[in-house]
Amino acid sequence: MKSKIKAGIVGGAGYTGGETLRLLLLHPQIEIAFVHSKSQARKPVISVHYDCLGLTDLKFENKINNSIDVLFLCLGHGESKKFLQENKIPLPLRIIDLSQDFRHTPKANLGKRKFIYGLPELNRKAIQKAENIANPGCFATCIQLGLLPLAANNQLHSEIHVSATTGSTGAGQLFSETSHFSWRQNNLSPYKIFDHQHLTEISQSLQQLMPKLPTHINFVPYRGAFTRGILATTYLDTFLSENQVIGMFKEYYKNHPFVQIAPFDVDLKQVVNTNNCFIQVSKKNEKVVIISAIDNLLKGASGQAVQNMNLMFGIEETTGLKLKPSAF
Asked: What is residue 51's DSSP assignment?
């Protein structure tokens, strides 16, 4: 593209706002027009995001400039819809929302705005034509990527069992008892057993590929004693051989640059600080076991948002997202 795309960030002082800012500052085809934050208005961006020292002289603003091409909403759940209702955002301006406000099909419209569910490995063609994107949840992304190839091949016929552990940044930046260092460190705890909010969007995506989905998802999420990343273990019954299942995964993801089928044991350090998802597939007796891992703030949030932006504006999909993992 000849001229740079102008982007604005709302909720720029939080975790996903900061990650989106870092990615866009280093994106070769993006110019950041403003970073909005009510709580930090008029303060330098580096007063919150210290690691951006030397990268930007931007200050947080409390007003919206509509002279941009794309707006990233990095707000809490319920806040994005409220923000759009309170602010007049012209329809030609594209929106990428990182909250859960528009992910579910019955809630995907707001006035004349229609939000497309932004999982590129499921909806790439729709994303390329979209004006508004509902960015997927972090647990939902990790778990869906471990199941989409089976759904696409009509191979989800038994109950699905998932256990997944997330880092503390998944809870957001606001203080809570379960994100406090003294509670989280050297600790592990389940929560929202079989009742996590991401189950709705996971089922919605699987039914998109396999409309007569006969199965139930049993999901046990855990809070981990680390800051970044999600590791999910998914298993279900199958009559397919291990090679058949691995073949399905390789075929499904052959044109998706951020998903890799690993020939080794997967762990978080392989994907943290990247937009990648590593998946390991094996067969144990009659069950297929799928290990999937992502960085919850990147492929599970801001990285995927930038990936969606690239697709929306016809930019090569991996631009600005060739990131280095923390291997050790």
From this structure: G
Catalytic residue set: 138
**How far apart (Å, rounded) are the C-alpha atoms in residues 247 and 245?**
5
Q: Say how far apart CA 301 and CA 312 lie, in whole Å.
A: 16
Question: Could you give the percent of the chain with pLDDT greater than 90?
Answer: 84
pLDDT band at 116 (very low <50, low <70, confident <90, very high): very high
Tokens representing residue 181 in the block: 């260092």
What is the pLDDT, as a whole number, of residue 183? 73
* 156 neighbors 210 (Cβ within 8 angstroms): yes
The span from the CA of 117 to the CA of 144, in Å, is: 13
* pLDDT of 308 strictly over 60: yes
Where would I find the H helices in 10-137? 15-25, 79-86, 120-129
- According to the model, what pLDDT value does residue 324 have? 95
Residue 11, C-beta contacts closer than 8 angstroms, at least 6 positions apart: 17, 36, 37, 73, 74, 75, 76, 79
